[in-house]
Amino acid sequence: MSNVEILVIDDEVQIRKLLEITLQSHDYKVVQAATGKEGLIIVANHPPDMVLLDLGLPDESGHSILKKLREWYSKPIIILSVQSSEEDIVMALDNGANDYLVKPFRTGELLARIRTVLRASTTEPENPVLIFNDLQIDLAARVVKKNDEPIKLTATEYSLLTLLAKNEGRVLTHHYLLKEIWGPSYINESQYLRVFVAQLRKKIEFDANKPRHLITESGVGYRFV
Amino acid sequence: MVNIFFHKLKKPAQYLICIFVILAVSAICYSLSQFIGYRIVALILLVSVSLLAMFFDIFPVLVASLLSALVWDFFFIPQKFTFYIDNAEDGLMLFMYFIIALVNAVLTFKIRQIEKEANKKEEKDNMLKLYNTLLNSLSHELRTPIATIIGATDNLQTVGNKLSDEQKDILVEEISTASFRLNKQVENLLNMSRIESGYIKPRKDWCDVEELIYGVVNHIKENNITQTIEIDIAGNMPLVFIDFGLMHQVLYNIVNNAIIYTPADTVVQIKAAYSKKVNGHFNLPRNNVVRDSEIDLLVITISDNGNGFPENEIGKVFDKFYRLKNTETGGTGLGLSIAKGFVEAHNGVIDLENISAGGARFRIEIPTKTNYLNNLKNE
């Protein structure tokens, strides 16, 4: 039994029950809150290792709960949302959520996201070599290899690749990527991102039109797996 | 159809035409008065009023009958150029003339009203029939998966211990399939209501057309299709400024539709191109020509060499809930309407035609800004 404790903040009792059974059967401890206020109190008194937060809460919007939590709670928060509204998702991610899932979701998908987010938050990326199947990124030597063949990347392509790869499994928003790679004045210049993602895919993917590493999250950002 | 046209004329025009016709007919009769008797003139005028009654509203016709009675009295009944009538027979004739003209006008008016009501009722019946068909197909599409879920869970709850593991697996699989089908239908309905409420505002951003189209095709190919999909993207394609998510849905719905309704060995071809189109006006500040606005067109066609659409139904395929006759169940008839709604939200147009060589071709045109940054190999 792992000691990982997950707080579920969702007003729908059916969803809470489903999540409880799913998570418990995978050895997570589950705490539940039906309202945002209740959730805030639980986190304040007994901080869990992770929060699953529904965006559509009856008493206070999930966005505002997220902001309040992020003032002092630094552990992972995954957003659950019924509307697949990209704006909502981008806003939550920019406000510090680690990942998101749109209801209805597959439980397998949920568990995978939880594992990814937990792993990223517990292990520091000490290892200088990141390996993704056929792709190797040696951060110390600044060398990228595909099937053991070194590939040539420009400086921008390399920064983009390493930023994504260091956040394996996590969706990074367009704004975040533009700000980190090109600088704060470029956050609306998404054309740069499009062009460099396309160039990068041609170099690192087996088939650039069927990317298996650099995944598009439509309207939200990119995820590296 | 003619009388519908005349009814659309404004009132003053109707009055003028009525008066003009009566005066013209009277003038002709007057010039012929040495060949025809004045009583025949009354009949000719009566016929004119009856004809007018077929085309115009009641009040202009009443004016025409009154005017014609006066004209007949003044210009034709002996003691011409006076209203004076010297024998009782002519007086009676004038009186009857007026009554007949009046009855004529009123009767024609009534007949037309009855006709109008009948049309309205027929229209209403047709609407009701259409609505019922839609509702039937929709409730079928929603209820089938719900019935499956309720039935399967009932079985698992009540006779679960009598079922073999294999049977249980089948039931669970059925529940799962039904849930996804239901989810798809609900998503379609939500999209449709977003379109109808005018709530859709595209979140436009720079998009790579290649990524868009290959993304759709990869998505479609997850369903293990038997058809071949060919992709042809114009060289030097610029980035376009569109809503990636909405356009993904548009292309998915159209290509998926082609896949569902064409034979196994069909080739579906997706072509993307763009054309330069200069809009707006030109400014000439200090002799420098400045292009004020430049709008390009993204043109995507999706064609197949299947059987095409029945010509008599091709105009209806974008209608909400419309499904081709003799197609199997399994769709709500919303996919193409949603595609059209999303394209129109981009101020674009979508149309469909059958290809003479066989098969159908959808053509989408989206006005968009373009960016050629991807042609600059920098950094």
Short description:
Chain A is built from 8 helices and 12 strands.
Summarize the structure in words.
The complex is a heterodimer of chains A (225) and B (379). Chain A is of the alpha/beta class and 225 residues long. Chain A is built from eight helices and twelve strands. In chain A, strand 8 and strand 9 form a beta hairpin. The two termini of chain A are 28 Å apart. By secondary structure, chain B is of the alpha+beta class. Chain B folds into two domains: 199 residues, no CATH class; 171 residues, Histidine kinase-like ATPase, C-terminal domain (Heat Shock Protein 90, 2-Layer Sandwich). Chain B has a five-stranded mixed β-sheet with strand order 2-4-5-7-6. Chain B has a three-stranded antiparallel β-sheet with strand order 1-3-8. Chain B is elongated, with a radius of gyration of 35 Å. The N and C termini of chain B lie far apart (70 Å). At the A-B interface, helix 6 and helix 8 of A face strand 1, helix 7 and helix 8 of B.
Notable features of this structure?
heterodimer, A: about 220 residues, alpha/beta, Rossmann fold, five-stranded parallel sheet, four-stranded antiparallel sheet, 8 helices, globular, B: about 375 residues, alpha+beta, Heat Shock Protein 90, three-stranded antiparallel sheet, disordered C terminus
Topology overview:
The complex is a heterodimer of chains A (225) and B (379).
Chain A: E1 5-9, H1 13-24, E2 29-33, H2 36-45, E3 50-54, H3 62-70, E4 77-81, H4 86-94, E5 99-102, H5 107-122, E6 129-132, E7 135-138, E8 143-146, E9 149-151, H6 155-166, E10 171-173, H7 174-181, H8 190-204, E11 214-217, E12 221-224
Parallel strand pairs in A: 1-2, 1-3, 3-4, 4-5
Antiparallel strand pairs in A: 6-7, 7-8, 8-9, 10-12, 11-12
Chain B: H1 2-8, H2 11-31, H3 38-55, H4 58-76, H5 88-158, H6 165-196, E1 205-207, H7 209-221, E2 228-233, E3 239-242, H8 244-261, E4 267-283, E5 290-304, H9 335-345, E6 349-354, E7 360-368, E8 370-371
Helix pairs in contact in B: 2-3, 2-4, 3-4, 3-5, 4-5, 5-6, 6-9, 7-8, 8-9
